[in-house]
Amino acid sequence: VSQSRYSQVKSIIREGKVFGIDNVIATSANIGMQTMDSALAYLVTNGKVSLNNAMRYSTSVDNLQHLITKK
Predict the structure, then answer these.
(1) Backbone angles phi, psi at 17, to 5 degrees
(2) Separation of alpha carbons 38 and 66, rounded Å
(3) Could you identify which of 6, 20, 22, 41 might form a hypothetical disulfide with 12, taking C-beta atoms 3.0 to 4.6 angstroms apart as the criterion?
């Protein structure tokens, strides 16, 4: 993880705004980060996991469904 991303996450945690960590992850795909929903969408679209199982573990079912239909 790049130092700037580490610093961002550190600041977010220190400020008690942990909900912002997902945004850092989502905008850091270029360095290999991915959200749980992105990983689940990949697994569903590649037939590795059923949609029902993915929905059970998703952080946002609406976002997961959006990511699946987008692919």
Answers:
(1) -110, 50
(2) 10
(3) 20
Q: Which residues contact 55 (CB under 8 A, 6 or more apart)?
A: 61, 64
Residue type, 5: R
Q: What is the pTM of this model?
A: 0.77
Q: Are 54 and 60 in contact (CB under 8 A)?
A: no
- Name the token pair of 6: 């580490």
Average pLDDT per block of 10 residues along the chain, 71 residues long: 78 93 87 92 98 97 95 64
